[in-house]
Q: What sequence folds into this?
C-alpha cells in the first residue's frame, strides 16, 4: 500500500515537473519574441504615435522620439521611453546615440516627416533636411545599436509621391525629398546588407493624420497594423526595396 502511494506521488511530481519545465520554456520563448526594441522618430503624433501604441500593445519596448518630449503626453501614456530628437539637429542625434550606447535596437523606423507646399529655397531645404538627411544621419548614428540585433531592420518612411514614375502635384519639396530618401535606402542597403541588415523604403499610404488630412482613405490604426505585420515578415529578399503598407512592391 505504502509503495503504491509513493509511486503515485512520484508520478504526480514528475508530471508537475514536466508542466513546470514546459511552462518555463514557452514563457522564455514568448519573452524572446516580445523583447524587440523599436525606435520610432516623430512618435509624438500621427503614424509615429500609432507605431508606439501598437508595438507597446504587442509587448515590445519602444523608444519614441519627439522634438518636445515634455509635450508628448500620448506617447508617454503608451509606456514608451521618450527621447528628444529633432532629426535636423546634429547635436540631438549625437545625444541620442550617446544615451543609447550599448543598447540593442531591432527596428529603426525613420518616420519623422515634413510636408510643405511652400516653394521657397528655405522650405525645400527643410524638406531635404527632415525627410532625406534625417533618416540617413539617424541610421548612421544608430548603426552600432542595430548591429547588436540578430535581425536589424531599418525602415525609411517614404511616399508614393516620391516615385520617379509619378512627378505630378505641387508638393515639390516633399516629392523630391522622398525620391532622395529612396536613394538613402539603396545606399544604406548596399553598405549594411552584408552585415545582415534589412533596409527598406516604405510608403505608408494616405492616412488620416495632420499630414494626410481628414479625407485620407486610410486610418492609421489599419495601415500601421498591416505595416507592423509586414515589418515582422521582412527578410533579406526585401532589403533595398520600396514597399507599400500592404506589403506590395512599388516602382521607384
Ligand atoms: N499621412 C500620410 O498620408 C502619409 C502618406 C505618405 C507618407 N507619409 C509619411 O509618413 C510619415 C509620418 O507621417 P504623418 O502623417 O504621421 O505626419 P504628421 O502627423 O504630420 O507627423 C509628423 C511627425 O514628424 C515629426 N517631425 C517633423 N519635423 C521633424 C523634425 N525636424 N525632427 C523630428 N521630428 C519631426 C513631427 O513632430 P512635431 O509634432 O514636433 O512637429 C511629427 O511627430 C512621414 O514621413 C510622412 O512623410 C505620410
A:
Amino acid at each position: 500500500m505504502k509503495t503504491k502511494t509513493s509511486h503515485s506521488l512520484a508520478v504526480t511530481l514528475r508530471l508537475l515537473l514536466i508542466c513546470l519545465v514546459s511552462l518555463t520554456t514557452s514563457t522564455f520563448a514568448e519573452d524572446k519574441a516580445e523583447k524587440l526594441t523599436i525606435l520610432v522618430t516623430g512618435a509624438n503624433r500621427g503614424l509615429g504615435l500609432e507605431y508606439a501604441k501598437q508595438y507597446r500593445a504587442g509587448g515590445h519596448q519602444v523608444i519614441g522620439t519627439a522634438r518636445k518630449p515634455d509635450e508628448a503626453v500620448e506617447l508617454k501614456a503608451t509606456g514608451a521611453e521618450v527621447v528628444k530628437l529633432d532629426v535636423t539637429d546634429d547635436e540631438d542625434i549625437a545625444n541620442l546615440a550617446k544615451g543609447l550606447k550599448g543598447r540593442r535596437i531591432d527596428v529603426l523606423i525613420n518616420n519623422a516627416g515634413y510636408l510643405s507646399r511652400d516653394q521657397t529655397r528655405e522650405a525645400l531645404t527643410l524638406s531635404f533636411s527632415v525627410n532625406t538627411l534625417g533618416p540617413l544621419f539617424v541610421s548612421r548614428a544608430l548603426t552600432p545599436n542595430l548591429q547588436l540585433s540578430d535581425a536589424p531592420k531599418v525602415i525609411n518612411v517614404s511616399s508614393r509621391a516620391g516615385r520617379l514614375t509619378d512627378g505630378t502635384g505641387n508638393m515639390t519639396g516633399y516629392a523630391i525629398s522622398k525620391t532622395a530618401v529612396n536613394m538613402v535606402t539603396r545606399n544604406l542597403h548596399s553598405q549594411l546588407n552584408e552585415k545582415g541588415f534589412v533596409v527598406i523604403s516604405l510608403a505608408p499610404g494616405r492616412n488620416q493624420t495632420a499630414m494626410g488630412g481628414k479625407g485620407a482613405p486610410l486610418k492609421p490604426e489599419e495601415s500601421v497594423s498591416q505595416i507592423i505585420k509586414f515589418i515582422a515578415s521582412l527578410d533579406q529578399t526585401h532589403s533595398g526595396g520600396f514597399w507599400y503598407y500592404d506589403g506590395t512592391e512599388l516602382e521607384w
Remarks:
- The longest strand covers residues 61-66.
- Residues 35-244 form a domain with the Rossmann fold fold (CATH 3.40.50.720).
- The chain has seven helices and seven strands.
